[in-house]
Design a protein that fits this description.
35% helix; 325 residues; 7-stranded mixed β-sheet; Rossmann fold
Length: 325
Amino acid sequence: MLMDVLPEKVRDWTDVLASGAHVWQQGRLAPGQLATADGHLVLLAEQLEKAALHHSLLILDDEGIEVEVSAVKVVAGRDLLSLRLSAWSPLLKSRLQQVAQGWDLACVPVLPSAAQPGLVLMDMDSTAIQIECIDEIAALAGVGDEVSAITRAAMEGALPFSESLRRRVKALAGADAAIIDQVIGRMPLMPGLTELVAGLKQMGWKVAIASGGFTPFACHLQETLALDAVFANTLEIRDGKLTGEVLGAIVDAEAKANILVDLAHEHGIPISQTVAIGDGANDLLMLAQAGLGVALHAKPLVQEKAPVCLNRLSLEGVLGLLQAH
């Protein structure tokens, strides 16, 4: 089957590939499977077109990698094309991303299986929700510019997270604690969050939050979405005012990575069946620790280091990755 025969929209390939998996050989697709696979490439988009496969195959052919087209699916309203690769290397990600025009991709040695129990641990601010809660509190307290600048430096890795958090919280000293409820009342969920959580629950997976933000917001999400666990920092409040202090140990990068391991152990889940999602430098250790680390609309440093980056899709893309087999 020549590439020209395939419809332009990938979701229309279902009938064409009804006979099962196909391998790419000498410029055409033929029914068959790879004897062994050492990597996976998943292409995702709101509407995926065959140009995504064409551009990817040019690079894979250049690398001498054999390709099996193993699945075409629509998950949470998004298209995905799943390929098995005869070989994998860390350099493939950057090469494939250079030609990605309008689609996201994951090029990894292994993928977690939706058919087995698993765990998703995600950051909260700018990951599960669309805002940085401390910036919103600071804006209402009249110190928005000062706090936002520190937040930006921390997320880009220019400032240690614990130091940045204490500096930002210190700036909130004396603010009315009622501001917290105001921010909760207008806290926008990240697109795809509800679809991701619903899909994970249907698969029997655990889902939790590990946040460098604060407990009132994390607990609100836990109650709203029936999350299995949340971990966040505690703001000290006295006489209805923020004191400018954080109580207890700070949930920093090391804490997030440890939480992932501890939760997996608690539920008897192998690390290979864990997924971590985040956007800032404070999430990098957690992303590296997980079986699959996903950077969501992330800062440049995180884009460079994360195993998988979602820039066009949102959290529903993670559900697609888990159902790509």
